[in-house]
Amino acid sequence: MMMGHKESATIGIKICGLTEEAGFDACVAQKVDWVGFVFFERSPRNVTATQAAALSARHKGGPQRVGLFVHPDDATLDHVLNTVALDVLQLYATPVRALAIRQRYGLPVWLSQPVATQAELPQRCLVDRLLIEPKPPADATRPGGNAQQLDWDLLAGWNPTYPWMLAGGLNPQNVAQAIRQTGAPAVDVSSGVESAPGIKNPDAIAHFVQNARSSKFLS
C-alpha cells in the first residue's frame, strides 16, 4: 500500500557525492534531477569548490547542482558559491541556522532530518525540503553517508504535505521497494551506486534510475 505525499507521478532522483568525471557524465546521461557535491572534509566524497566547478562545467544545464554542507560557516559558503554555481544548499544544521542561510544566499535549502522513531518524523518543514534518513551510529565520524538503511516501517501512516526525500542505504536492488513502501516522492543515493568510496559506477547509476522510475508502475 502506498503511503506518504506524492509531489508528482515522476520520482525525483538525486545522486550525491560526485567526485569524478565518469560518475558525473553518467548522471547527465541518465537525466537525473540533482547531482550532489559534498563539501565536508571527513567524507570520502569530499571535493573542493574548484573540483566541483570543473565537474559541473562538463555539461551546461542538466541536473541541478546541490552542495552538501555540515554546519557550515558563512566564510565556507561564500568561498564555495563564489567558485561554483549551486542550485540548492543541502545542510546538516539547526532549523534556525538553515533559515538564516536561506535568507542570506537566496537559494533553496534542504535540511537533513535523521530519525530513529516515528515520533521524530517532522510534521512541518521550515525550509524547501527535508531529507529523511537514519540516525548515524554512535561511533560515526559523519552525520550521513554511512550506508545505513532507514527502517521504512517508521513511515507507515506518515503523510507530510511538504516536499521530502528518502535517503539512507538505497541501492539499485531496493530502491523500487523503498518507493512503493514509503511513498517517497524523491530518493537520494551515494554509496549504493559506487564501485569504491567516492567512485561512482555508471552501470549502477543506470540501474538505480531505471528501477526508481519504474517503481510507480509496479505499485
UniProtKB/TrEMBL annotation:
<dbReference type="GO" id="GO:0000162">
    <property type="term" value="P:L-tryptophan biosynthetic process"/>
</dbReference>
<dbReference type="Pfam" id="PF00697">
    <property type="entry name" value="PRAI"/>
</dbReference>
<comment type="similarity">
    <text>Belongs to the TrpF family.</text>
</comment>
<keyword id="KW-0413">Isomerase</keyword>
<dbReference type="InterPro" id="IPR013785">
    <property type="entry name" value="Aldolase_TIM"/>
</dbReference>
<dbReference type="InterPro" id="IPR011060">
    <property type="entry name" value="RibuloseP-bd_barrel"/>
</dbReference>
<keyword id="KW-0057">Aromatic amino acid biosynthesis</keyword>
<dbReference type="InterPro" id="IPR001240">
    <property type="entry name" value="PRAI_dom"/>
</dbReference>
<feature type="domain" description="N-(5'phosphoribosyl) anthranilate isomerase (PRAI)">
    <location>
        <begin position="13"/>
        <end position="211"/>
    </location>
</feature>
<dbReference type="InterPro" id="IPR044643">
    <property type="entry name" value="TrpF_fam"/>
</dbReference>
<comment type="pathway">
    <text>Amino-acid biosynthesis; L-tryptophan biosynthesis; L-tryptophan from chorismate: step 3/5.</text>
</comment>
<keyword id="KW-0028">Amino-acid biosynthesis</keyword>
<dbReference type="GO" id="GO:0004640">
    <property type="term" value="F:phosphoribosylanthranilate isomerase activity"/>
</dbReference>
<protein>
    <recommendedName>
        <fullName>N-(5'-phosphoribosyl)anthranilate isomerase</fullName>
        <ecNumber>5.3.1.24</ecNumber>
    </recommendedName>
</protein>
<keyword id="KW-0822">Tryptophan biosynthesis</keyword>
